[in-house]
Amino acid sequence: MAGRHGRAALTAVSLVIAAALVAGLPYLVGIGWQEIFAELAAVRPAMLVLIIPLWLLTLLAYAYVLKSSLPGLTLPQGLTLNAAGSAVSNMLPFGGAAGVALTFAMARSWGHRTSPIAASTLVTGVWNVFARLLLPAVGLAGLVLAGRLPGQRVTFAAVTGIVLIVAIVVLGVVALRWPPAGIWLGHGVDRLARLLPRRIRPPRDAAGRAFLRLHNAVADICERAWGRITAGMAAYIVLQYALFVACLYATGGVLPAVAVSLAAYALGRVLTSVMVTPGGFGISETGTVALLVQLGMPPGPATAGTLLFAVFTFVLEIPAGGAAWAAWSLNRRWRQPPPRAATVEHHPVRTAHEG
Are 342 and 116 spatial neighbours (Cβ–Cβ below 8 Å)? Predict the structure, then answer.
């Protein structure tokens, strides 16, 4: 009971922080809510005709990523997983874990085994990390090429950061696909497991073997579908960036320079990983608006456009996810596993002590 009350208190505090950040956002850049509402009210219906399909396409692109990472998953099922998981993540601080639990429950109801689901979840999670690492590199590159950074020292630091980020992503890809990397990492997992208290410590090599099985499953997905997963993730990022630019233009008729909008979008997506509030809501918008204004965009359109973007990428995901969850939970026929459940082939597992 105490744990439940603690989680409720944490959620309440998180929501209060998010609400306070959003409420104070206009005043941070020297305007009032009246100007924000005026900008939002001026959005033309023709722009919504463009924005809504863009939003739907972003959902479809990420559903394709999920479909590519889990054999046998259909595109409608991928849309359902994406919507329901995002809704849970957007409602709770550290909601990603609850979203993963819901993903497991839904995928298992469609006949998928635990191991392929775990591998799919890890692969899509890693690809998300890679994307969030590369986005700042792309944003910085845009600012460097546009000459928007002050002074040679800052430019040199930015270029150094870009090189380091790309190197980290390359090493991550190698670790996923290179079998010896799995064995070395298995050694590390075993050593960490030995540090646990004796009563919960797994048997010798058990943790390493479990990690190697998961690494093999992930390597199999990477070998078989890395191109489709990468293409889907790239489409998702490009479409979401286009949605961001469309929201900025719709609210003020101001189209910022590509380098400016790209840097602000990249910063905002990185800040969604800050778990102080659900989905980084409030934190992401504050950082995005601050950077847009710092780089020369008028405060009114910058704030209104960023908030409109948040409506589509955060607020609307909650009722959309609720509808997806309701469709899954109420449709028993849809939740029946197919005659032949989807499986993922695994390579033979070597222990961390085999060469």
Answer: yes
| DSSP type of residue 201 | P
Measured distance CA(314)–CA(316) in Å, rounded: 6
Question: Whole-angstrom Cα distance, residue 234 to residue 84?
Answer: 22
Percent of the chain having pLDDT more than 70?
A: 78
Dihedral, CA of residue 202, residue 210, residue 68 and residue 336, to nearest 10 = -60
Tokens of 141: 């590159």
Cα–Cα–Cα angle for 164, 170, 171, nearest 5°?
90
For 317, the 3-state DSSP assignment is helix
Over the stretch 214-230, which tens digit does the pLDDT of each residue have?
667 777 777 788 889 98
Q: Is the pTM of this model over 0.85?
A: no
CA distance 59 to 56: 5
Angle between helix 317-330 and helix 96-109 axes, rounded to 10 deg: 30
| Cα 332 from Cα 83, distance rounded (Å) | 19
Q: Give the Cα separation of 54 and 242 in Å (integer).
A: 8
Residue 200 three-state SS: coil
The stretches in the chain having pLDDT less than 50 are 1-2, 341-355
272 vs 280: CA distance, rounded Å: 4
- The pLDDT tens digits for 252-311 are 777 888 888 999 999 888 888 777 777 788 888 999 999 999 888 889 889 999 999 999
